[in-house]
Each structure stands twice: as structure tokens, then as C-alpha cells.
Amino acid sequence: MSSSAGEIRQAQRRTWAGLSSGWETWDAVIMDQMRPITDALLAHLDLAADQVHLDVAAGTGEPGLTIAARTPQGRGVLADLAPEMLRVAERRAAARSVSNIETVVCSADGLPFEDATFDTVSVRFGFMFFPDLPAATAEIARVLKPGGRLVSSVWVRPQDNPWTEIAMAAIRAEVALPPTPPDGPSMFRCARPGYVSALYGAAGFGDITEWEVGVELVTATAAEHWELISAHVSLAVAALRQVDEQARERIAAAVVAAVGRFERDGAVRVPGVALCIAGSKTAPGA
Ligand SMILES: C[S@@+](CC[C@H](N)C(=O)[O-])C[C@H]1O[C@@H](n2cnc3c(N)ncnc32)[C@H](O)[C@@H]1O
User: Residue 34's closest CA among 154, 130, 186, 136?
Assistant: First the structure.
């Protein structure tokens, strides 16, 4: 049975409240992994110094904080469903002396902003968790100025993302995980090429492009890789709740052994691939 939009929002809020401390603990490693995505998205935004930017599903603040830091006369709004994630974003902003931001707790499918408020919008790894993707994309289009740019990223196939799939395979060897409903929130829900572009098109965006960007999750050791994954990857954290301590130890040992093959230059570098999507809100009469 599929869940209602309200149930999905409630479950997502709980999930990300629980993951926020793992994201804060591992902030430097996670942000290094995601940096190529931020760079790719920013390259498609054509930022002005007085930009008014909205980062939807901003979580602990990226890429919204990086954009705010580069647009000192502008303003950045970081919107997310989970206040706990936004509190981390506020602490990260203070640590980096980025003061031209505000945080807003809301769902992507009900943005509390006037029409045509923002020059640009970003959604880094958020689309897959929204209860109603067409409604969220239409909301983003509504709050963007005509001609404004939307950039986003989603994960591609699990087999191209060993940084998370190695742990999931080790978990599946211990416990039968229920299949993810195709329309329910999950990390790989938007993996199909063209899926997010079609959402953009239906919401009135033009000039749509999508392209793949590689990432690397770099940890000092294989044990650190496991610690990090088991603390912040939504799929893994949820699945690990279903196993006992002995099974958890077997999973940890299997992951540590499997990621050993990615050791290079004194670190463990496990690859992954994301899809980035950019488009412009079509101006009336264009
Ligand atoms: C993988 S994190 C991405 C955080 C950040 N953009 C980044 O890339 O580091 C996903 C975020 O989506 C948020 N989220 C989930 N459902 C949402 C919704 N309906 N509306 C807004 N944010 C949502 C979660 O609270 C979480 O912070």
C-alpha cells in the first residue's frame, strides 16, 4: 500500500532528524565527496553578486551556503523539512562567517514564498525524497523569476555507486529488505536518465540539460568508511535497524574487506556517479 503525502513528509522529517548528527560529525568528508557536484551545479547558474537564491532540501546547507558566500550582496534561503538539519546548516554558516542566509522549515511541495521571488534555485540530492515530485517542481517554477535557473542532482544506478552499494549488498546478505515502492522516497528513485528532465519540462522549464558527474568518498581507512556510511546514508541506517549486534558486526567486517580494493595513495577512495540537471524557467511569450 502506498503512503500518503503527509505520511511521507512525517517519515522523512523523522529520518533526517535522526541522521543530522551523523551528517554533522562527518561534515568534512561528506562535503569533500559532494564538492564536484556543487562545482558542476554552480557552473550552470551564472551567479550575480546580488543573487537571491533558494536552496530546496538544503539539509546541512549545501550548495546554498557556498552560493551565499559567493554572492555577498545577495541573499540565500535554505529550505528543508527537517529543522535538525537546518540547525547544522546554521552552525556551518556561523563557522564560515556567512551571514546573508536564512533558514526556513517547509516541504518542497508547499513553498512559503511569493511567486517570482528567486533568481535561482538548487536542489542537491533532494528530489528523490519528495512526496509529490510534479507538485514540488511546479512550486519551484512558481517561486522562480521568469528566466531563472534551476539546478539539481540525483544519484544514478546503485551499481555505479559502490560507496553506498557495497554496504547495502552486505546488509542484504544478512536481512531480507522489503522492496522499495517505485514511487516512494528512496535514494535511487530518480536514477533513470530523463526522469528529472521530464519533471522540469512538465513544470514549464526549457533549455534543459543533464549530465553525469563522478564523485569519490575518501576516508583514511576502510573502518572509517564503514563508520561514516552507517551514520549518514539513509538507506543503510534504516536497514541496520533491522539487524542484531552480531549481524551488524558481520556486515561491518564484509564492508571493510570489500572496500579494501579501493585503497590508493594512503586512503580509501570509493567512487560514485550522480546526474546533474539544469534548466531555465521559460519567460512568458518566449
Ligand atoms: C541527502 S539530504 C541533502 C542535503 C543537502 N542538499 C546536501 O546535498 O548535502 C536530503 C534532504 O532532503 C530533505 N527533505 C526530505 N523531504 C523533503 C521535503 N518534502 N521538502 C524539503 N526537504 C526535504 C531532508 O530533510 C534532507 O535534509
Answer: 154
